Amino acid sequence: MEPLAWLYARQGWVKPGLERILALLARLGNPQEAYPVALVGGTNGKGTVARALAAILEEAGLRVGLYTSPHLVDFRERVAIQGRPIGQEAVLSLLEEIRPQAESLEATFFEVATALALLHFAREGVEFAVLEVGLGGRFDATNATEPQLSVVTNIGHDHLEILGPTLRDVAREKAGIFRKGVPALTAARGEGLEELRERARTMGTPLWVLGEEFSLLGVEALGEGLAFRLRIRGEERTFRTRLLGPHQAENLALAAVSGRLLGAGWEAVEKGLLRAENPGRLERLPWPGGRELLLDGAHNPEGAWALRQALRFHGLLPAALVLGFSREKDHRAMAEALKGLGPVVLTRYASPRSQDPRALLPLFPGALVEEEPLKAVERAFTLENRVVVAGSLYLVGEVKRALLGLPPEERWQ
């Protein structure tokens, strides 16, 4: 079986525990020990924080490896050095090398992908690696590393069937990336923050909390992004970004303070935040006829509310919505968050994990159904001049693939 097909066949397995990834890395020579690491977890925003932090450290002069998930169009997006995705030949070669060990250990898709990234970073001589946590934290494959800094962006209602059932349970799992004496940062609130505090105290982890050790003083919408003011240790700084949505100011504040704690100067922070990108998160694409397509991976209730706020904050309404969800998500809560924003076309992405759009009709009265995502987008453009695709990063990825003339890719992870 072709290497990528072999890897994709391992999707859908969720087997908690670090035993397999630790054994796999040991057989590969423990590449994760070749460079320092930052771990970025949380319910929403971890991709933004990871990408922005990598950009800051690059501006500070470091050769930086970045590992994120999921990809949108191409697996190679997950593994990048200095912002450049891993080459296709390197992916195939590393998979061939890892495969025998992975099969003997029954390693999962994400464990193999993580091992591939860590091995690639070691061989390419990165000086720092920023790793986005996949699911939870305590048993996530990225937690086989020993971070110099940990981030838990926030605690929300996602993957409760695995991490829950309560927000405290979710927070406890995500706090698994904390280490004794190693600084951690969070923008969490409420009971999630309470649990993170308790875990930090128990473990001896210095915890930096947004609104306490550092604060946002204001967020302003710009024509092509945001401006926000940050206070840390009595010092105030103003930053700009091309990212959209007031929620991104919190994520970028976490990245900025993380960069400072890792030794980056303010100039590197400023430049890194200004060039930070996160495809598929309120990504704006021009459409023929002066129209506009927005792609957003909002896939849980908190993400849906953040999308709603962002569309209003930036004056991006009216808009038609193209929505598709994974089966296990809280569809009712997401429907409540997106209610009344505009006409809805329901669709699905190419996986058995995707929810049947017709089953969602009771939650979206008057919605249309179009099974194929790109046809759903085209139909939505008959309703409004601006269309927002949301509900799943897999759906966003499938739309992007279709726009590039690529076939759907069955996705589970």
Please explain how this structure is put together:
- Helix 2 (about 20-25) crosses helix 4 (about 90-105) and helix 3 crosses helix 10 (about 265-275).
- The protein starts with a helix and ends in a 10-residue tail after the last helix.
- Helices cover about 35% and strands about 20% of the residues.
- The protein has an eight-stranded mixed β-sheet, with helices on both faces. The chain has a six-stranded mixed β-sheet with strand order 12-13-17-14-15-16. The chain has a three-stranded antiparallel β-sheet with strand order 9-10-11.
- With about 425 residues, the chain is an alpha/beta fold.
Going by helix content, strand content and strand pairing, the class is: alpha/beta
Helix content: 25-40%
- Strand percentage lies at 15-25%
Largest sheet: 8 strands, mixed
Biggest sheet, strands in spatial order? 4-3-2-5-1-6-7-8
- Cα-based radius of gyration, to the nearest Å: 20 Å
Shape: globular
The helix count comes to: 14
* Mean pLDDT over the residues: 95
The termini sit apart by 20 Å
Instruction: Detail the poorly predicted runs.
Output: none
Number of strands: 17
Task: Report a brief summary of the structure.
Belongs to the folylpolyglutamate synthase family. The chain is of the alpha/beta class and 413 residues long. The chain has helices spanning 3-8, 19-27, 46-59, 88-105, 109-123, 160-163, 167-174, 190-203, 247-261, 266-275, 301-313, 331-338, 373-380, 393-403; strands at 37-41, 64-67, 79-81, 84-85, 128-132, 149-152, 184-186, 207-209, 214-222, 225-232, 235-241, 283-287, 291-295, 320-323, 344-346, 368-369, 386-390.
